[in-house]
Specification:
Blueprint lengths: L10 H19 L6 H4 L5 H10 L18 E4 L16 E4 L1 H7 L20 H4 E4 L2 E4 L4 H10 L4 H23 L5 H12 L7 H13 L10
Antiparallel strand pairs: 1-2, 3-4
Helix pairs in contact: 7-8, 7-9
The structure holds zinc ion.
Length: about 230
Amino acid sequence: MIALTKLASPRILTQNAAAWRAELLATIAAGEEPTKAQKNRYNHVDIKAQLVEETHGKCSYCESKMRHVDDGDIEHILPKAKHPDLSFDWENLTLACTICNRKKGDHDAPPGDAQSLVNPYQDDPKAHFLFHREILTPTPESVRGSNTENILELNRADLRERRREKIDELHQYVTAYAQAEDDYKPLVSRQIRKQCVGADKEYSAFLEQYISEMITRGTLPEDVLS
Ligand SMILES: [Zn+2]
């Protein structure tokens, strides 16, 4: 998980959210079951596109890229089943992979509550998680980090395997850098930046932590991350 910044609300939502919300809440208040169309009006191509951009096309929880095989789910940070009034609230929408979305389910806790999940838009994930090689560890003081890791299973086997592949690939680049002739080091360093640095990279929290450790021990130059 990395920190994310909300982009501007897409026009379709700015123009329609209030009416959609009023319609949905009126139906519920009348004791009727809202139609699928009434519940799912957030599922619009422009809304998805803006969420893809602000999440760098990754699941906002596990940082997996899924867009090559899956559109990704529009995820309600507070579940729409329990907070229908937030169904079309831009601040409550993000992008998640199918698995994180399913594991989160209707988990519900007010922001800041010990049971609330770490929110990449409001919390600093680095205060809640340590990233070592392919393993995510909640920081010792973070109850919310621990709950988030448990509920979303952020160390599930498939994630660990894919993260290990990424770290191994990075390790090969770093090894190439460390053993390169001085003339070639800038070239390899640029390659590391291009392939492994940036919020758009899959599992960037893990890659950047690994690179930071290599900088600290003097293996890589500081400008790889800057
Ligand atoms: Zn995910």
